[in-house]
Model the fold of this input.
Amino acid sequence: MKAKVHVTLKPGVLDPQGKAVHHALESLGFAGIGGVRQGKYIELDVAETDPAKAKVQVEEMCKKLLANTVIENFAIDLEG
Amino acid sequence: MKAKVHVTLKPGVLDPQGKAVHHALESLGFAGIGGVRQGKYIELDVAETDPAKAKVQVEEMCKKLLANTVIENFAIDLEG
Amino acid sequence: MKSAVIVFPGSNCDRDAAVAITRVTGHAPRMIWHRDADLPDLDLIVVPGGFSYGDYLRSGAMAAHSPIMAAVKAKADKGVRVLGICNGFQVLTEAGLLPGALMRNQSLSFICRDVLLRVETSNSDFTSGYNAGQVVRIPVAHHDGCFFADEATLDRLEDEDRVAFRYCDAQGNPADAANPNGSRRNIAGILNPGRNVLGMMPHPERLADPLLGGTDGAPMFRALAAALS
Amino acid sequence: MSEPAITPEIVAEHGLSPDEYDRVLSIMGRAPNITELGIFSVMWSEHCSYKSSKKWLKTLPTKAPWVICGPGENAGVVDIGDGQAAIFKMESHNHPSFIEPYQGAATGVGGILRDVFTMGARPVANLNALRFGAPDHPKTRHLVAGVVAGIGGYGNCVGVPTVGGEVEFHPSYNGNILVNAMTIGIADTDKIFYSEASGVGNPVVYVGSKTGRDGIHGATMASAEFSEDSEEKRPTVQVGDPFTEKLLIEACLELMATDAIVAIQDMGAAGLTSSSFEMASKGGLGVEIDLDRVPVRETGMTPYEIMLSESQERMLMVLEPGKEDVAKAVFDKWELDFSIIGRLTDTGRMVLTMGGKTVADLPIDPLAQAAPEYDRPWTPGKKLPEIAAAEVPERPWGEALLTLVGGPQGSSRRWVWEQYDHMVMGDTVGRPGGDAALVRIHGTKKGLAATSDVTPRYVVADAHQGGRQAVAEAWRNLTAVGATPLAITDNMNFGNPERPAIMGQFVEAIKGMGEACIALDFPVVSGNVSLYNETNGEAILPTPTIGAIGLMPDVEQSVGIGFAAPGQALLLIGPEGSWLGQSWYLAQVANRAEGAPPPVDLAAERRNGDFVRGLIRVGKVSACHDLSDGGLLVAVAEMAMASGIGADVSAQGPHLHAALFGEDQGRYVLAADEAEAAGILAAAAAAGVPARRLGTTGGDALSVNGKDAVKVADLTAAHQGWFPAFMG
Ligand SMILES: Nc1ncnc2c1ncn2[C@@H]1O[C@H](COP(=O)(O)OP(=O)(O)O)[C@@H](O)[C@H]1O
Ligand SMILES: [Mg+2]
Done:
């Protein structure tokens, strides 16, 4: 299966990248931008074909490695 | 509206971060991982309420700044 | 030689470049703040190293889109020499003055050390102070120095003699082990078709003073001054 | 918005003892509200009030003719001649780095940089002293990788070279690593900025980043013993933004070049609370702050949150009246927040308002003066027996040497420092890998030498000798490059001071440090205390890290550790090796961490060092290395590896292992032209300095008494190989 993982900063955690991107977009003349947050997007192929089991496995991966749960949240989508 | 932008490396462009994550997952004992690709995920709030116009605007942002089209593709989802 | 160093928020090798140029050529460059949209009459523009805009999003991306880069592009089109060092190289590729992209080092770590470079061409005002094939020692200090371009672009760079420097071993071989960051074909620096724009990851300004451990960077500035005076 | 009632539980959560809370009540004359309680809590925390350590810190020598400002300000200031001053300090970020190694270490660097540029100095060098758990502990690699990346990520981006430091491994740090960061800056002596507020009515200005809910309670976290459930406290981790810091440095220095600033203070631990409090308190004034004017990045922040937030990259200033526009223009140029949030008053009170209402009103002086100060009970450490060399089994020296230089403690730290930009700013004359780093003072031929040192295994065995040794080793490392040692900053990392044995380590280490400072004319000008470094009751090795700087009048005169050429004479300055107690050899070759550590003869230390420095300054020496961990042979091996040139050395004495690997103090190895050797030995004899011909450089191997050569290339492979292999 394909797992799509989004890793985003927890609400309230400073996002210097998002802040800088926001600023840069404004100076490029884009108006009306309320806020920008930047995260990571990770795609993985896992051999596991049972969605429930795959989910558990990818969750494990997120907790152990993909996300820094001190400051980040993660969300998992499974496909096919 | 909220725009969700995925920026991913083009196929064929080497992804050392994805490779390192793959390797690290394996050494943590996760088996059966076929491949890992890492990209960026950017969330923006835009004032524009017309979906078509918002899409054009965010596409502009991607081409001008958010993605480097020499090496990256982007995809845009609009919400709300 | 009338030269200038562009200063972006987050540039941090701007002073180093100015010191080296002054030291080697006797001409002090002007420091130009990124918001100054007009550039004076110049022979050489240096886009220095550092972390412009924090290198957030992608190294060099935000600086590449700042107004001053439009002015730099216009000067480059008129043949003014433009030297991008490290972050400056990243800015020049992001701005489209040079092909390719600089990606995260293969090791994923920042790397600061002296490396050996083979001078690939002496046919430019930047490299005419060296002999083609000469091996020089110059430091790198970067996180995103892995030069990437598609095969066709790489072939064209080679066919047009636009590769300026390659990472090499002591014998001058562009060996894998001598490549600090995974750059395609060990490329450390490239020229534009007009040969008036050079981007390179290593820092020639860091070794232009014997007290800092070497002077292999000095011939670049000396040659530029000779050509442009 | 309803505020929580002040219950005994809430008081306890704020780290205030019932006794301390009674004092709060008597100062306030009423029960505090939650914001006021929060302010008391952070101001009286160990971190801000130094309540356990103050009594002893006061005993350290802090004066010398060249000291411009000792402890008490953001950083220490020493005169380096020609109207210039060096400003420096070291600070710990131990707990945050254990919880989130990248951000914890990064924000540690950010914080110490701010302490230095707050005073008007441009930061010119960073150092970092790191201590991790056992290499085979499951968390160690992750922590090493994160901390090193974080230090590099921050320092590289702000463009200040990271030129030196230490890395050690020991199981006592398994659950409590140490991350001590040091910054050195240069200022003009007539442009130094202090934090003492003055001028009733003067505007109080906030600059830098916006305030969020970061690290609320960070200061109290740094003052409480660690336990497994501190994982719960995770959201207190702050994220650093080195790009904003770089802008803040440039903006502050630009404004400092004008005469707009009366006083300035960074917002460090306890953020807006401690910065505003300390500025007003030092000036004997009051302060009024309108919290609605504090730039915030989140909605609905309470007064409590705004006052206690530890968001990074922020500064508080008092301006000359009428200079608001000048200052605002500078911060606008650098695209940083700028807000006039209040003014100084003559009431002696801190009055906070929000939404037009007073949300806190406390007296400044009584609060500051009533800050608890404890004379905690302490017990002296037990004296350990001296280990006789004869009872330590002897192994072939080549094998022992490879073990030492190729192991976790003795291997090269190149893997670490190559992730740090150590050359940016174009003045790094002495790069990492030698005894002290050497940074040229921009535009001059002078240089500052810098080092950080402590040998915790000595301190745990005998805190008094260990304290002396830490200072002496720092002094020696500066001397070994030719510099005149000037002053130190100390970072006292210890366990729980409420335990008399730990308090005893602290007290004895301070006594030893103080003696060494006096004997070596090496005052303490700044420092930091980090207590409660324990996990589940297990304390770290007592670790009083010494950061030190020295002055090199002409950087061209300095020497490095690498042999300059083959055929050079090698000389040993100082006594023969004899002391194996607490040595690397005993621990790593004989597997025994035992005995008394080497004593430090401070008079000999000074005499030998002054002699060596004198020789270097007159150009008689081509390479120099002090002897420390691993003794004579490890030092010679490091000199050989640094140059790729071998050497033969002669060893004397009844026990070869003690002669080669003993860690006796106050010693150096010098290389010199053959023609100079006799003269140097004669001068040493005249000066009463023990010295002898040790050997000769040359070839591609190291040998002892002409025998048993070990190839330099093999030593180098082992020395360079361990760290990268460990990190994978
Ligand atoms: N964390 C670090 N960052 C930068 N340099 C380091 C670090 N750790 C060690 N070094 C450098 O490695 C060299 C050897 O360190 P160390 O063995 O502690 O030196 P010494 O024994 O002379 O005190 C020194 O130049 C030191 O500055
Ligand atoms: Mg040393």
About this structure: The pocket of magnesium ion (ligand 2) is lined by residues D 435, 477, 626, 628 (CB under 6 Å). The radius of gyration of chain D is 26 Å.
